[in-house]
Amino acid sequence: MKLSGDHTQRFAQRWLLTTSTNCAVDMVSLVTLLLAWLLLARRIHIPPFGHAWMATQCLQITVQIVLCRRGASPAWRELGAATFRLNSFGMGAANAITKLWLDQTACQTGRLALARHAMLMLLSSGAGTLLLIQAKAMRLSLALAVQLFVVLMCMQTNSTMCSGAALTRPLAQQQTHQLFQLLELASFSPLPVAAKVQPATECAAVLGYLQLSIGLVLPLLAQAALESSLFQEHQQQRRQCGVRPESGYMQWVFDAIGSLGEALDRVTFPAALWMLLGLLWKLSVVIAYRQAEGG
After folding, report:
1. Per-residue pLDDT, 295
2. I want to staple 50 with a disulfide (CB 3.0 to 4.6 A). Which of 46, 193, 228, 281 is the partner?
3. Neighbours of 235 (CB within 10 A)
4. At what angle do helices 140-155 and 74-86 cross, to 10 degrees?
């Protein structure tokens, strides 16, 4: 990716100029939301507040596309991206719709039943939505705060999702238990986990893991790597032109990310990523336990 703007601008401005001038993400978001709206409306009875939320999201994306076409300021585009992320679950509207869908969805049987059950849990977790909304570019510092808030709010509804009929039937609970055991085996983390876990807690742990990994950490790691690389390019351009390199707390963050990236190779990077995912899994289990105890 080529860095837009010139070296006299702040890096935050150049980052937004580089990532906020393309309407492709907005178009994909609009088409995806319209298709989901149509398919869900044919399968379940969406309550009025659900239709209102979906209409609001479609309107907001349309406004973003218009602003993009008319060359609106990247700062306004970033504000729109933040608003879209914060409203991505519509104060519970999306979760309510998902719960209605789960109540009318059958258990996964037959060939590849476990894989299809995993896909069902992925859809139930909202991790796909959390991943998609991160494609709407924001600065790393703001993206981290906004996305963390959205993910934590989403995780609060995991117990409700796990009470859906498609996830509470005995066969579904058995499949969830298999996924739970697979993640336990894959993590190899030294953090202890109780041997006996309730089905609802196992379900919440799996959903939480999908939200934390796919919906938060992995996309932010990718953005951090890209943004750090472009920041180093920005700093180099300033040095070549005799301009003092940019400083501040984000400069320290990007330098640390760059140093970490240089220290990792083809062997250590997969190992570090595997350890990180293992820790995220244990964190998901702990959060699920706490929610079960508090509930």
Report:
1. 60
2. 46
3. 21
4. 10
Tell me the C-alpha distance between 189 and 33, whole Å: 38
Burial of 109 per CB tally in 10 Å (0-12, 13-18, 19+): exposed
Rounded distance between C-alpha atoms, residue 96 and residue 44, angstroms: 12
CA distance 156 to 208: 9
State how far the Cα of 71 lies from the Cα of 151, in Å rounded to an integer: 31
The helix or strand, by DSSP H or E, that contains position 141, with its residue range, turns out to be helix 140-155
pLDDT value of position 105: 85
Which tokens sit at 135? Answer: 């494609």
CB-based burial label for 192 (10 Å; 0-12, 13-18, 19+)? exposed
Q: How far apart are alpha carbons 193 and 177 in whole angstroms?
A: 14
Of residues 235, 82, 105, the one with CA closest to residue 164: 105
Report the SS3 class of residue 186: helix
CB 219 within 8 A of CB 134: yes
DSSP 44: S
Q: Are 115 and 182 in contact (CB under 8 A)?
A: no
Domain boundary assignment for the chain:
11-294
Determine how many CB atoms are found less than 10 A away from the CB of residue 196. 5
Q: Report residues of the chain scoring pLDDT below 50.
A: 190-191, 194
| Residue of 105, 96, 126 lying closest to 210 (CA atoms) | 126
Q: Distance (Å, rounded) from C-alpha 97 to C-alpha 40? A: 8
Distance of alpha carbon 133 from alpha carbon 220, whole angstroms: 12
